[in-house]
Design a protein that fits this description.
By secondary structure, the chain is of the alpha/beta class. It is built from twelve helices and 19 strands. An eight-stranded mixed sheet has the order 5-6-4-14-15-16-13-17, sandwiched between helices.
Length: 390
Amino acid sequence: MTGTRSVLLPPSADAVIIGAGIMGCSIAWHLSERGMRNIVVLERDLIGRGSTADAAGGIRSQFSTATNILLSQRSLEYWEHFEERFGVDINFRQQGYLFLLTTPEEVEVFQRNLALQQSLGVPVRWVSPQDIHELCPVLRLDDVLGGTFCPRDGWADTSTSTQGFAAAARRNGVRFIEHTAVTGIDVRNGRVQAVLTADARIATPLVISCAGPHSRAIGKMAGLEVPIDPYRRMSFVTGPYPRVPSHVPMTIEFARSLYFHPDGHGFLFGMSNQHEPTSENKTVDQEWMLTTIAALIDRAPAFEDASVLRGWAGFYEVTPDDNPLLGSYAELDGFVIAAGFSGHGFMQGPAVGLAVSELILDGTSHSIDVSAFRPSRFAEGSLLQEHNVI
């Protein structure tokens, strides 16, 4: 294996992307579409098998910050036309996102967010408990004060989406090398010189870190402090269950970060444990699974007889303000980061690929201004808190 791996790795590249999730694959494709060909993508596992594979696949524009809304809107243009552009059916189901609000404080924040979203062209609306019942008739609503609903939101298959970007990038000459972890980054005189693996050195002037929950470790290799930490999140899938209509939207009880949406003939559901510390533990917590099931039945009693087929754990890559790091570092030439999406990376992958390619090739992101997510904001004390995190 080691001998074979050294043959596959080229001695040099115009750019080395670390991580072949949705971010790495989208950036690789966008750069190659602009003419950059000598791109190498290094993936410690398989393409799309990291945080992207563990994601629930949600796609929404209901955020509290303008940059996130704009990134999601631009990404939606890709998702809605993915098959005609990339030749891949991603099973995009636009059944909407429905947020349930149970406190006056949530109502105030979401109505303020609603005004911002609508001002930016998002077709989102306020919904009363009666409206919510019509959208999702299986819910217990005695404590629900209202909510928001956007019919253009939905969910898609994360694996085929990522593979679609990767295949298109390959057609443009991008090289993807799987089962190859980065072990070091050679930095001299304030700029990147090379990326190191267990058995090779790839000389390059540009490293793009799309390492998700491993971003802090990659940053340390380059002498950078990257404030991104992994937090375990679990999802579960039921067996076929006709008692709950298959046309219901992605439904989120915001207070508990409880969500569910149709998945095949069953339903995918989960809930964030907001008290769990950062860790690299990807096992399923059976106790938390039972807690999540109880919360699901409490909110939607019709699920009482559903069977759970399987569950899995993945990571949110979380920053102090629940927003990503996008861009370069003044103290190190040749290092760009696109990570720390705090649970909304998959849905924004297409637009982030576009924005990062513009930052690299043009010096600025002119399609979408992502300067609010510059890595230096933490040292500057200019954090931009995203409120709508599930």
